[in-house]
Amino acid sequence: MVDWAQGLAKGYDASRPLNILRPTTENIKAASRIIQRGGVVVMPTETVYGLACNALDENAVQHVFAIKGRPADNPLIVHISSESDLERVASVIPPICHELAKRFWPGPLTLVLPKRAEVPYRTTAGLDTVAVRVPGHAVARALIQESGCLLAAPSANLFTQLSPTCAEDVDPRIVEQVGMVLDGGPCSVGLESTVLDLSGDEPQILRPGGVSRAEIQAVIGQPLGIVPPPSVRKSPGLYRRHYAPRAVVRLVERLRHGQPGLTFAHSEDPCQIHMPSEPRAYAANLYSALKKLDDMGCDEIGVELPPDGALWEAVLDRLRKAAAV
Prior knowledge:
globular, single chain, four-stranded parallel sheet, disordered N terminus
């Protein structure tokens, strides 16, 4: 097993909680034992940090809901270590699943499928479907394999608040309620996974994310239309307001002089953060930039609107949810 301490901050930092640890082999084993006993840990993924527990343990799942203050009708994503684990959670696996898995797993694509009876309804928010993916972060997969458990791992935030994309950004109120936080470094994607519903007659994107609509269409060989908000939430992230800082978010064409916020222009104002013009790089920096402004005590954050194009779909989704009231 790789010692993931390499490349991370070296030395002991007395300002960090004692349970934020580098994902060494021994720490991954210790985190696995916590999960096996029904506990909860925070693990890194390539999307955001997740609040991980045994997805088949109803009591552990309920604990995750309680820590987050998450509504019971908001299903969790089950994280598996490889495509072969699909049979443990899904009762029906359409052939297209294998094509999608071959192209995008491990990675930020979640598939919604009919569930097996072994998956508790508490995990799926009472639905007969289950959301499942193989995470792209090696630490997450190592934790799944070492624990022998399939992991429910919603973002390690309080409900509707910003998802953390580094260990230091996990809310202290969450850190103190979990057995361990595995610090796997900054998340490379920085936005939650794309959720693709394969449980109905036609594939539908329920939540845009780290895999683009065009990439999925290239595999399935058909267009994916824009669907209206579903009456039943088969996926997390479908509330009107979500992924939001404490400050009020305003979407604007251009920031005013001195207005705190995110800009595509270069600025020497410390309250104006320059953002990348490339959508994947922007996504990777979005949550951390919003948190930085939140931590400065800004009451309002202006965000310059990115281009209204297909490549920006996931970013625009998160910005509109953050700005919703």
